[in-house]
Design a protein that fits this description.
Two copies of one chain form a homodimer. Chain A has about 240 residues and is an alpha+beta fold. The longest helix of chain A is centred in the last third of the chain and has 13 residues.
Chain lengths: ~240, ~240
């Protein structure tokens, strides 16, 4: 068996999420279907760096799987891309040691959140950027992010549906910039809880609108209560950008 | 009656074209449906600068129509955008004289054609850029464009389905540049025949691949025969960018 590490991109618009479930198209389901064909009817199970929710996009998601085929990885990639639907693509495939695990070996991850901050909708970004036509103060938002940097218990910024016991995570970098009429939020951390980036963005927007003060973030973290934070920003603005090993 | 000039953008992916037809969603159909609601059941007919085909996008299409309503244009725009589907948006609306006509008064138009020139597909550009993973020589293409500039009979670059008698058009500007992994073709002219930009792009790609010489464009123009030119490039790479009056 050969263990393969594969970087994939997908447009999450028409998926019910990553993980196989009883109804709806899933990224995992479609990749495993393609691998099933590629392996002439043999079922291949894939393992992602982590799941993504319905509507969330990925530019550099990583998966691993074991294949009995011994063909060069570039031919493997070409064959796989021919079998994948047009909203999933394999960007790189490489051979790795059998002790590589796409989930357990993650060192850090990068997410980006896109906010369309202009008066009118943009029909070309409707599924990829959160249309937010309200005035926001970016300086206040950037000021607020400093309370999020470093290791914290992110219970307040985690969906109550999460089953993770330990909610301490470390955010190493937060960058925010304007790109044309979009505001890009970039987060790099050693791990992210369920809905964590979306709840952080939703809360930062309250700061940007003047409904919260930047230093309120510190208090919200200390409360360890999901209700203390802001709304969960919509899924379609979220992009899993990169995974480091 | 007030004549309104309206700049609109639409993502052509899920439309069967601009003009109302017996089956399939059309841009005109959806806009007229929204106006019908806005005018409480009164039918309003819109007039575009020109039609676009199924799959073709618009960033700055212009339409005009007459409205019995006398509300400020910014409120009109807001109401219309609330009623339009999420793949059409009104970018600007202004009052114009009743002698303004969106089609007859066009001075020039700009089209852009996007080509994704990289090894793998881009899931985020799949409906907006023509995926073309083959090696092309951009210098040869740019060399070829000089034969297209100016006034010519573009019969060879016009669909045989066209019913226009006079096929002389003037291309004022052609610019071609790389933007990330895309090649952008920009055409500005006083008018474009049916499929003209797509046939030009398809033919320029043959030059870029070495299957035609740049100076062959001159010969193709002189032949005045659609068969002399290259294939019609796919609709989804084409964007109506701007219309001048």
């Amino acid at each position: 068996m050969n263990r393969l590490k594969c970087t994939i991109a997908y447009d999450g618009t028409n998926f019910s999420g990553f993980q196989v479930q009883s109804n709806g198209r899933t990224v995992q389901g479609d990749i495993e279907k393609a691998l099933f064909k590629l392996h002439k009817g043999e079922e291949i199970r894939i393992h992602p760096s982590g799941r993504t929710d319905a509507g969330v996009h990925a530019h550099g998601q990583v998966i691993h799987f074991d294949s009995p085929l011994s063909i060069p990885v570039d031919r493997y990639q070409m064959a796989l891309n021919t079998l994948l639907p047009d909203d999933i693509v394999a960007l790189t495939i490489e051979n790795v040691n059998t002790d590589f695990h796409a989930r357990y070996n993650v060192v850090k991850k990068e997410y980006r959140y896109f906010l369309l901050n202009q008066k009118e909708r943009d029909v070309f970004r409707k599924n990829h950027s959160y249309y937010y036509p309200y005035a926001i103060n970016l300086d206040r938002i950037i000021e607020a992010t400093k309370y999020l940097l470093g290791a914290h218990d992110f219970t307040s910024f985690c969906s109550t549906k999460s089953d993770k016991e330990n909610k301490v995570r470390t955010i190493e970098e937060i960058e925010i910039w304007k790109e044309n009429n979009e505001i890009v939020f970039r987060f790099v951390g050693n791990g992210f809880l369920y809905n964590m980036v979306r709840i952080i963005v939703g809360t930062l927007l309250k700061v940007g609108q003047g409904k919260l003060e930047p230093e309120d973030i510190k208090v919200i973290l200390e409360e360890k209560n999901r209700k203390a934070a802001g709304k969960t920003a919509p899924a379609h603005g979220l992009h899993l950008w990169k995974v480091w090993y």
